[in-house]
Design brief:
This protein has 6 helices and 11 strands. It is globular. With 197 residues, the protein is an alpha/beta fold. The longest helix has 21 residues, at 13-33. The two termini are 21 Å apart. Strands 3, 4, 5, 6, 7, 8 and 9 form a 7-stranded mixed beta sheet that branches. A two-stranded antiparallel ribbon has the order 1-2. Strands 10-11 form a two-stranded antiparallel sheet.
């Protein structure tokens, strides 16, 4: 149901945000499930021991501005004190190629597992540029998990060929890209619908 609501062009902004947030929370939970864990023993209030687990290292989220910032709340809801980084990449509407404008990342990012946040994977150009930025800062591919609400088969194919060790967690895989390189049937411009309309 949430997928139909966020796809509907007549959905009001408040409903788009609410149902997008539900999907994003599920994606974040699944992304966290992909992280390696180590055994951890705890004592319960009944003075019993429980053999559980804990993350095997530090994590951080990196959002691709602006639409990726819509996923930060879902990450914070699951990990209250998580560090966040930001990368501003804009797509040239004529060439559909990405251009890097801004990078702000934790200084110790090379020691962290990174949840890369961008709700749409269309051509994969912006995500690929973001991965390159992370790799230049010392983040290993197998420490990156890319979370997105919606992906095109073309974007996934390109992404998997270029970065085979990066895990991709997506909510839906759509039919493909149109002539303007937009995901179809898609949801339109996710950032505009989440922040502006």
């Amino acid at each position: 149901m949430s997928c139909s609501i966020i796809r509907d062009k007549n959905t009001k902004r408040a409903d788009f945000i609410f149902y997008s947030n539900r999907i994003i929370r599920l994606l974040v939970e699944e992304g966290l499930n992909q992280l390696p864990v180590k055994p951890k023993t705890v004592v319960t209030p009944t003075e019993s021991t429980y053999e559980g687990s804990d993350f095997l290292g530090k994590i951080c989220g990196v959002s691709i501005i602006r639409a990726g910032e819509s996923m930060e709340k879902g990450l914070r809801d699951c990990c209250r004190s998580v560090r966040l980084g930001k990368i501003l990449i804009q797509r040239d509407e004529e060439t559909a190629l990405p251009k890097l404008f801004y990078v702000k990342l934790p200084t110790d990012i090379s020691e962290r597992y990174v949840l890369l946040l961008d709700p749409l994977l269309a051509t994969g150009g912006s995500a690929a540029m973001a991965i390159d930025v992370l790799k230049k800062r010392g983040v290993a591919e197998d420490r990156i998990i890319f979370l997105n609400v919606l992906a095109s088969p073309e974007g996934i194919t390109m992404f998997r060929a270029k970065y085979p060790k990066v895990k991709v967690v997506t909510g839906m895989i759509d039919q493909g890209l149109n002539e303007r390189k937009y995901v179809i049937p898609g949801v339109g411009d996710f950032g505009d619908r989440y922040y502006c309309i």
